[in-house]
Design brief:
mainly alpha; two-stranded antiparallel ribbon; 71% helix
């Protein structure tokens, strides 16, 4: 029966929901919505790939090759996104360290001036030169890492383009 009619609502598991309990009714609606959304997602995921493969016809070797190409493309796309994130992280690190260096250069140099650099959760007292050398080293490392990631990103872009072309050719090879 429906909660709107004044009777208790029963879900699939046989639990009765008191019509006066708005929180339980809300949770039940949310759970049903999640289940429906999940079923839709599963249906589109399972039907999307077989559609691409079923259009090929009865040749199982071509369909198997197409599935392999699609798997490789997904893996390359995932790697590409990780590399993009790494590049953004390196860029941010370089900017932060350069700004820190600029700010430290404005501080007058004293023999008695204490400077600290972070070391995990602790701070290490160092001279100004040591702090500058550490920051410059971090900038250099981040720039090197970023150069490597840019090259990897370009490689993955070429690879994804090639894989996409191979998928199209395989699908048209019917």
């Amino acid at each position: 029966m429906n909660a709107l009619n004044g009777a208790t609502t029963t879900c699939k598991q046989g639990l009765n929901v008191d019509p006066g309990n708005k929180q339980l009714e809300k949770l039940l609606r949310q759970a049903k919505a999640r289940i429906a959304t999940q079923k839709k997602m599963n249906a589109t995921q399972t039907s999307a790939e077989p559609m691409a493969v079923s259009g090929i016809g009865a040749d199982s070797s071509i369909s198997k090759e197409l599935q392999d190409l699609q798997t490789q493309y997904r893996k390359s796309a995932s790697d590409y996104n990780l590399v993009k994130t790494s590049i953004q992280h390196s860029t941010k690190s370089i900017q932060v360290n350069k700004i820190t260096l600029q700010e430290l250069e404005t501080i007058p140099v004293d023999e008695n001036r204490k400077m600290y650099s972070g070391l995990g959760k602790a701070f290490l007292m160092q001279t100004k030169d040591q702090v500058f050398d550490g920051l410059k080293g971090e900038v250099k490392d981040a720039e090197k890492k970023m150069e490597d990631m840019v090259q990897k990103k370009e490689y993955l872009e070429r690879r994804m383009k090639s894989q996409k072309q191979n998928i199209i050719e395989c699908a048209n090879a019917k």
